[in-house]
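sorry for the late reply, my laptop died twice this morning and i had to redo everyting from scratch. anyway the thing you sent over, i finally got around to it. pasting the sequence first so we're on the same page, its 591 residues, then the predicted structure underneath. double check i copied it right bc i was rushing
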Amino acid sequence: MLMMTILHLLALFLLVLLGFYIFVENPRNRAHQTFASFIALLGLWTTKDLFFWNFEELQRFPEIWAATSFIVALFMQYTLIVFAWVFPENSRTPRRKAAIFFSPGLVLIPATITGFLWKEISFDDGKLRIELTTVTYFFVFYIYLLFSYGFLVLFKKYLHYRKSQEGKQLGAILWSIGITVILKTLANVILPFLGNYDFLPISSLFVLPGVLICAYAISNFNLFSLETALDQFKLFPLTYKIALIVAAIAAAGFFVFQVPIVWWVFGNGADFEAWRKYLVFSIVSALLPNLLIVLLIIRAISRPLQKITLAAIQVINGEYGTQVELRKTNDEIGILADAFNKMSQKMADDIERLRKLHEHLIQTEKLAAMGTLTAGIAHEINNPLASISSLIQIIQKNKNLDEDVKEKLKIILSQIMRIKQVTSDMMEFSRVRPSSRTLLNINSVLESSLRLVSFDKTFQKIEVKKEFDNFLPEVYADINQMQQVFLNILLNARDAMPNGGKLTIKTLEEENFVVIEFTDTGIGIEKENLRKVFDPFFTTKSKGTGLGLAVCYGIVTAHGGKIEAQSDSGKTKFIVRLPKNKARKSEPEPL
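ok and here's the structure:
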């Protein structure tokens, strides 16, 4: 009796582990789901035999054992047919066909529960006696009909996939099903029909070899691979991790606490005092594992979800790009946290991109509007200024003027020339010139621009450091316009360092652009003014017109490039990006 109990418990333990492993290996696969259901039914069959054949109190109810046996056997055939339909293609279950095949169960299951399968059933002196009815033979025939159909479907698929991996799997499954059915038929049908019930108590053990072979085949012949088992353990979803935690703690609590308590309490008999001790100590000992389970679940679920929730609230409040700091895992929460971080970062990047695009559109609209306006204003101002200038020059030719008048006329003429310079800049800003673009070596254009500004006395005080990439791709641009952009930036650097300083000019290749960086050690630009420096007429200089950088912005964007200003720690950097010509790279400049 003890050996039978141990064997049943061992079989049940193996079935639980096997079913859990097969289901977790691929929980979304219908074949794995169906086979796990089959193992669950087999576990129910084993539990039924464990209770009935090992406890005399339950042997007084053989009709419950017999009814459960018939119903579980029927559902096992149902799972076999569903498995045959879905494996190995992971197909859907044909619902109409399933309704037709499974409909007799609507009659047979109630008939079994109400006792229509036997006239008399009893269990005396360790022997089972049963007198069957005609309904029983129909039930058994129906079960074998279902089995034959499922076996035939799998055999047809085996013929179709015979030379592939799926064919090998199907072949192994067919062998395991055949062996299992032969053993079960002998133990549960043929021998009891001949009056021999000796193998009924251990009939549930006969299916274990076949189940192991099926599991081995379904898992692509990797069931017994330690590496595969460890991989699956790493990939357990959160639900299965929690299930594993609960099962492990429950088993540990049983062996660590309950078994010693029962041994100690009931060692001298099961009297009232013993039961009182058992009740008190078992409740107290159960608290510790339960608290441990609660703590582990809080650590695995509650805390990570709380962090994700707080991060989501921060994003709602406008803190785009907020990241959730969690240990990377492959379960649902780990995937959720990773997806949230990527979503938050992408949202921040998209918003920043939209902001820059909005600024670019506003700047373009400003330039277009100011271009139209300045063309008209400059034209209307220049005509009267030309007349006034001519009249003053005529008056200056009069030799009878005193020195005070001459000085005042000179001042007036200088102010007129200043107005003309402003209007000239305005005309330059608004003029649309025909583009004359060619392939340019940017390093050569920069060298030419530096030679021009080198004649300026103030610029001569500046130390120029050149960090040119001699293998830059060429750009397709207007050489005069590019020189105008570079000269404007160089002269701005000169104005920012009237007493000398250091100017670093760097060229490099960046993705699809040729990048030119101008970094000076001048007075810098206030952060609130960085976005305004390319606006028309915005200037921080006492004598500036505020059109130079606006013209640069228009030229660079017209070439499909970008220009931006940065200022930090007393250093100002202007970055110009021009689309590179992908046809070929520039030849390096001779040293």
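Residues 2-235 form a domain with the Rhopdopsin 7-helix transmembrane proteins fold (CATH 1.20.1070.10).
thats about all i looked at so far, will dig more tmrw
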